[in-house]
Amino acid sequence: MERLIKWVVMVALLLASLGLSAAPNPGERPRPRGEPANGLPVLNAYNPGARNRGPAIDNQSAARRVKERFQDRRILGIKMMQHSNKMVYRVKTLSEDGVVKFVNVDAESGALTE
Hints:
The chain is an alpha+beta fold. The protein has a domain at 59-113: Roll (Nuclear Transport Factor 2, Chain: A). Helices cover 25% and strands 25% of the residues. It has helices spanning 2-18, 59-69; strands spanning 74-83, 86-94, 100-106, 112-113. The protein has a 4-stranded antiparallel β-sheet with strand order 1-2-3-4, with helices on one face. The longest helix has 17 residues, at 2-18. The mean pLDDT is 76.
């Protein structure tokens, strides 16, 4: 019974997808180039002049930098926050002695500060 339901759902999805088309229907005006088929705005993923690019370093790169510099510490957590008008990753570390310390990694330059 469960296999039958899966097949019915798959066939229904297949039939529904056949009715979708990016091309205009007969009698419908052609869409200007760049206009989306569904009428939603297009997000420009590549815009070299965009101001809000996001951080140059991701959280995994920030953790890797901390681990390279402080090899004797374990990384407990990482979060992004604003500090002195800059975005930084605040990395929570644990030393072999059981001392918790925080290391800040600049999200743009990758500079480490304790």
